[in-house]
Each structure stands twice: as structure tokens, then as C-alpha cells.
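User: I'm putting together notes for a lab meeting next week and I want to include a structural view of one of the chains we've been expressing. I don't have a solved structure, so I'd like a prediction I can at least talk through. The sequence is below, exactly as it appears in our construct file.
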Amino acid sequence: MKKKLLLISLLFVSISVFSQGTCATAINISANGTFTTSTINGTYKASCFGTFANIKGNWYSFVAPSNGEISISSNLLSNDGVTKSDDTRLSIATGSCTGALTCVNGNDDIDTNYLSEVLNEPVTSGITYYIQWDSRYTTLPLDFTFSFTAVDCARPTVVYLPEYSSTSSSDLYWDQTAVNPTNYEVDWSTNFTDTEGAGTIVSVPPGALAYSTVNLSNLPISSNFRFFVRSNCGATQSSWSGPFYGYLPVDLPYSNDFEDVANNYTDGFINFTLFQSSASSSPANYADGGAGNAMYTFNSTIAASNARAYFRALSLTAGEQVTVEFKTRLFSTTTSEQINFNLTVGASQIATGQTTVVQSFFNNSDLSYTTHTASYTAPSSGIYYFGIHNNTPQATVQTFLFVDSIDLTTNLSSADFENSNFSVFPNPATDFLNVNSKLATIQSVVVSDINGRTIKNVAFNQTNVQVNVSDLNAGIYMVTINSEEGSTVKKFVKK
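Assistant: Thanks for the context. Below is the predicted structure for the 495-residue chain, given as C-alpha cells.
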């Protein structure tokens, strides 16, 4: 692999320049180096994060001389990243200082401390990028490094949440780069520890729309996978973007206590923040049962809350009744205020897709965890997402709501449950029908017409199989799946 790199400055020099107090008067950065801000007391402008009472900002700007990547970091020994005294927060945005700013990327805490960094963020030639350090946690001055590298093959940076059409299929989407490459490459693996380039690589041509997409099919049923995306420009390739993660839909029962590191702790639960509780954390031992992990959201002291989080996708059958149980607890450094929230459900992990409010709840106790229970019956078979919507009115005291111990159960009988663990797709089918089993090895697949006549009888000895149906006439067929644990019948349509 060949990659051309051009630094705009070969030397990293220490530059003692104080940033300015507004976006419009931001200090322009024209060379790589280490910078020291002044006390953070300028005018804050929202882009990557929300607005809080009395929040301040300090500003820099950078005009990209060519397409490339920038890295900005306060993760330096000169900053105290162990305590909150240097808890930094970084935003990078484009747009208008007098109008709206659009977030390019931002960071609050890195994995190991309270400091912030954004690494290898692609930038476009001629565009002005505004860099804001804000006073969400501290107004103290800080040191940070800035570097720009010219790159002739830009990597994708806007990668969307995977979409799921079944328990073994996922669609991935990402925005096209400014200059389309020869193709894009997606590297996926069910092993989270596989480094980029070590998994299964799929080549994808640039799309005709503003985004490109690829379908990953025949994945292990209800598995988790990680993926990277990069541009292949022919003679050169970009760096990989990622890792990103997918969590295929699961059948019930399902539980999540946010403790499994192999599932990234969250196991597909998104949008609330992971809190790792211990005797030395603040608050201490605040997971359900003591030390351990929980997710949290919080109210707002300047507006009504509108924060949503979503569970991992579920594969439900028509008429299946789901019992949802989870626990919450409040925390505040003073007196906790009540948090209101809804349990919602819908077909996607966005607000407009959450079409049903299952039940409304509140919590006004910080003494212990409170158990909440609700029921929902799926009107049709498909993929569903439950969500928690924090819709607390404007508050006077900032209060946190911790969520833990999610447990979802089903009313299906043992036979129904086994039946739901066999899947056939695509449906309708044109050329091939995939038959998957979560429970046992498939021994044979028998395809019959609606009159009961056997059309195909194919022997297998594996859990994921494929049947050629290209020679069948269009119509409705029944497929009998025979396994070592018994048989089940599914219907499919041949196009």
C-alpha cells in the first residue's frame, strides 16, 4: 500500500498564543504546534454540544490549504487529566460565526482520563474550521497540540448506525468523500479484537447518491460485529475509519446489565452515557447491586429535556407480547429533582421512528434503584426497537437518571420460541432462499407447494444453509426445516 503524506510544517514548535473570546475573532492556526489558551471566558456558541448556563468558550480557526487530516489533543502531561480541574471539552465546526455552526467532530473525555482529542479528522481544501474549547467543567487555561497532514485519498468520516432487515443481515451506510475514490472497502469481523484489515473485506463502488451502502448478509444469527471503512483511490488508500459496531437483532428473552466487555458493555444500547461505577467513582458504587456499569441521562436547567436512548434491536413475531423491565435511580450533588421519561417503541433508532409510547414513568428517589415494568404486543412480525425518552421539564438542579438491569421476556410457548429461532430470507425470494437456525444443526430443507406436493428436498448438516429456488414458478411455498431438535414450517413467496 502506498500513501503520500505531506506535513505543512516538519517542526512542532511551542506557540504561546492566547485564543480569542468569540468565534468571529478566533486566532488563525497556520502551522503545526503546541498552543496554550487563555482563561476560558469568551462567548460560547453551540455546535457539537448543548448550551448550559454560564458556559464560556475560547476560539481558534484553521483554513485547510489542501485536502487532508487534522489532529487536536489536550492529552498532555502539562494538563491535569486525572481530576476535574482540567476536564476539557473540544468542538470542531464549520459554518458561519454569525449564523449556524455545524459540528464536524467533538470530544469530551478520552478513554483514560478527562482530557480531549480528535485524531485524523478529514478536512477539505479551502474550508474554515472553527475550534472551540469550552468551560463546561473548568475555565482554567490548557495546552493542546494541533497538526495537519495533507492526504491525497480521503477516508469516509460520516458513518451511520447499521440498519437490520433480519437477525443475520445488516445494511451499512456512510457519506461519500468530497472526491469519490475508485471504490470503498468495508472490513467486517465478528471478532471485536481483529485489527483493521484483518477481517472480511468487501469492495463497494461509489454510490449515485450522497452516500454509499453495502449489505452484509449471511452473518451469524444475532451476532455482534465490528467494521471499518476506507477509500481505495487506486494507487493509494486512505486510513481506515472505525471501528464501528453492529448488533444484529435478537429474539426474546434478552437481558443487558452493561457488564460484558465482549459486547462493548453497552451491547447495542445507544445515546445515553456509560458510567463505570466503583468505590472510587463519583458517585461511588452506583450501578444496580453496587460496583459495575450503568447508563445515564440528565435533566437540563435551561430548557425541557429531550434525550432519547434505544435498546438493541429485537426480532418479534406478530402477536408476541413483550414484558419490559428495567431499573433507574437518581443522583445529584444537592437535592435530586424528579426525572420524567417514557418507554417508547418503533421501527428505528430515531425519534420519528418511535411511533408508540408504551408507558410513562418518573423517578424521584436517589435512595435505591426503582424497578419499572411495561408490556407491549407486536402488531406484526419484524424488527423493533424500544427506547427511553427523557422528557423532563426545565429543572433548577441538575439531576442524573441512571438506567440498569434491562430484562425483556416473551409470552411465547416453548414451541413458539423454537419456531422464532428459525429464519428464512429474503422473503420474497428470487434466486436463493437462506435458512438459518439458532438452535440446532439443519438436517434437511423440504420445499412444498400450497397443495402439499414436495418440490425440493435438500440434505444439509449445518446451521446456515442456502436453497436454490430460481427454477420455481412465482407463487407461495412452504419450507419445512428439519433439525436435530425437531421440525418447523415457514412460508415464503417466490417472485
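A couple of points you could mention at the meeting. Residues 17 and 36 are 6 Å apart (CA to CA). The chain is about 0% helix and 50% strand.

User: Perfect, that's what I needed.
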